[in-house]
Design a protein that fits this description.
Length: about 150
């Protein structure tokens, strides 16, 4: 017999990505960062049956954003600032990935990323015969990714 309230999976119909200080438009697709903690294994002398496991550093993968081409240069300008910075300090920004309810207005969950900067910008393939929408991709290095 069930004793708790039923909790169904949330459908992700709407989401938004906020990037500090940028008006970047909406995104069609977002591949959020993944976090992983490395494991160091070692075997103690005299204990041949067990391999000990120790915590290593935690790494965060890059955030990948895709959007239809919008004649707006905010994301490209941010990438260009980083690419042309040389040894100068780069413009890192904080931001959030926000999952919205089906009404498109109610916030369901927020994940925050910190000290991010763009490492790759790509314009999708130009093929006049396909009739497909032009897509921009932005890959952002993320130092830390946490639930909001």
């Amino acid at each position: 017999m069930a004793t708790g309230a039923r909790k169904d999976h949330e459908a992700v119909g709407f989401f938004k990505v906020e990037i500090e200080g940028l008006e970047a438009g909406s995104f069609r697709k977002c591949s959020p960062p993944k976090t992983e903690t490395e494991i160091y294994e070692y075997q103690e002398g005299g204990d041949n049956e067990t391999v000990r496991k120790l915590l290593g550093p935690t790494k965060t993968t890059n955030l990948i954003l895709s959007k239809g081409f919008i004649n707006q240069d905010a994301l490209f300008k941010w990438r260009d600032e980083v690419a042309s910075s040389g040894s100068n300090k780069i413009a890192r920004r904080n931001g959030s990935i926000v999952v919205m309810a089906a009404d498109g207005k109610t916030e369901l969950k927020r994940w925050n990323f910190q000290k991010a900067w763009p490492v790759k910008w790509e314009l999708g393939e130009l093929d006049a015969s396909s009739g497909a929408a032009l897509v921009e991709h932005l890959e952002i290095a993320v130092e830390k990714f946490v639930k909001g």
